[in-house]
Amino acid sequence: KCSANCGGGTQTRSRTVTVAPQNGGMKCPSLTEDQDCNTHACDPVCTACAGKSAGPCQHIKDGTCHGYMKGTKATCPPGTIECAVPVDCEVSEWSKWGACSEKCGGGSQTRTRAITVAAANGGKECPVLSEDQACNEQKCDHCSACLGKSSGPCQNPANGVCYDYYYGTKLCPAGTIACVNKNLNLASVSLLDAPKGDGMCSGCFGKSA
After folding, report:
1. Which pTM was predicted?
2. CA 8, CA 10: separation in Å to the nearest integer?
3. Is 70 exceeded by the pLDDT of residue 186?
4. In sequence order, what are the residues at sequence separation of 6 or more whose Cβ sits closer than 8 angstroms to the Cβ of residue 59?
5. Do 86 and 42 meet the contact criterion of CB atoms below 8 Å apart?
6. Residue 192: HSE in the Cβ half-sphere, 13 Å Cα cutoff
7. Region of 65 on the Ramachandran plot (φ > 0 left; ψ -120 to 50 alpha; else beta)
8. What does each C-alpha distance from 77 to 41, 55, 60 come to in angstroms?
9. Is the Cβ–Cβ distance between 168 and 174 less than 8 Å?
10. Are the C-beta atoms of residues 77 and 70 closer than 8 Å to each other?
11. What gap in Å lies between CA 208 and CA 5, rounded to an integer?
């Protein structure tokens, strides 16, 4: 079926795979094909006809609508004027999704499209122009107040520097603690009134540190 009754639309035909390719055989060709249809111009449409009258021409005085004069394709009867051709709204393709509002813990991102042809004369109204979706729904574990450009899920409470877990584990390096809340600022937390350390281990084997 054509997507529009006039003014240009598209219609699609399709086919199905009867034998799927195997053992390196040729891939299937396209299974759908589109073509233009109903490319003829739309007739004017009167949207405020008096009574039950209808047609592309409207009487100037009483508001009744009429068809074109017999034997013509676009000539209105005397005393009437041709109504405007309806114009449907047209919009652009969707933009790319915008940046997520959060890095973790659940945020949202938006994409938009713009009006390329505004609706007029009773034409189809525009569809929604913006769309939201959820993003970055993974659980937050990184610290939120790391010193300098450091980052990671573990923070040294003595100096505020953040670190990653030990490679391949979920264990924080010695001298750091895990930030389990994305809003927690461990740089300002005092742990049980204990003296602040320097984040270094003591009693290391050999010359390791």
Report:
1. 0.44
2. 7
3. no
4. 50, 65, 66, 79, 80
5. yes
6. 1
7. beta
8. 21, 11, 11
9. no
10. no
11. 81
